[in-house]
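Subject: sequence -> structure tokens, single chain

Hey, anyone have a minute? Need the predicted structure for the following. Not urgent.
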Amino acid sequence: MPAIKVGISLPTMADLAPKGFPGIAAGARHVEQAGLDSVSVSDFIMGNGTPALEATVALSAAAAVTTRVELRFGVLVLPLRNIAWTAAQIGTLQRLSGDRVVLGVGSGGAPGTPFWQAVGAAPEGRNARLVRSLELLPQLLAGEETTLPDGPALTLAPAVPAPPVLIAGNSDGAIRRAALHADGWLPSMVPPATVARGVARLREIAEEAGRPAPSTTVWLHAGLGDEESVRSARVAFEKSLVDMYGLTPEEAPLVPIGGSPKEAAERFAAYAEAGADHLDLVVDGGDWQQQVELIAEARALL
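Reply:
Had a minute. Here:
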């Protein structure tokens, strides 16, 4: 079976304090001590009263108390952000963490919401801004003099290694952007068969362009065991996959990771066989710390 890594998405939006969650710093430390491979944070500030933590600050808290796990943005919405300021933040986090950053990026993040309006980010043209930011970011992180669009030449120091970049999205356009402009593809909430088709397309486009085959990280929900809160969370999640994400009623049960650690390990293996290199899991139901331990137990069975 191909190797696969497993990490945990820390709660940074909506419910910031699920049952058993000890906070960002202690939660990240618990994930590392359990033997898992990464922690991640989302970037989903809407400005409409929905609770949300700013991604770079949250991931900095995780970096401060860990030494091994990858620190993943899942994902940072680049079209929302000034690229010079973003490069300074990413460079600082990369240096302070010992080069553990993995930069998942996307162009979504609820465009048109009050926060987008407040920072002056137009929803139109966001995919083009994403690609342009990805062109500028390596130069800025490398300490090279970089001329910004409609701006001055800028040199940041100290230089740091550019983190691996993953482009999020399930569409063919996202797959193409990942193949041509990034180190990896980050689809979300899709069954293994969809991952396999996407990976084949990803590799085809990369090969045609003479680029290395990008990696694939899949963002999923997981709730192990059989307690009531886990069962109810799974039912609600499967309904949302049909109602909001367009999956069929037959596909939806194939997405969330559940059951015993042995059954979860079999699901991990199915994604690995489909071409996934890394799973980024949102804990759904149950006691958060206990769920992390069960997921780690499943990871150890691979």
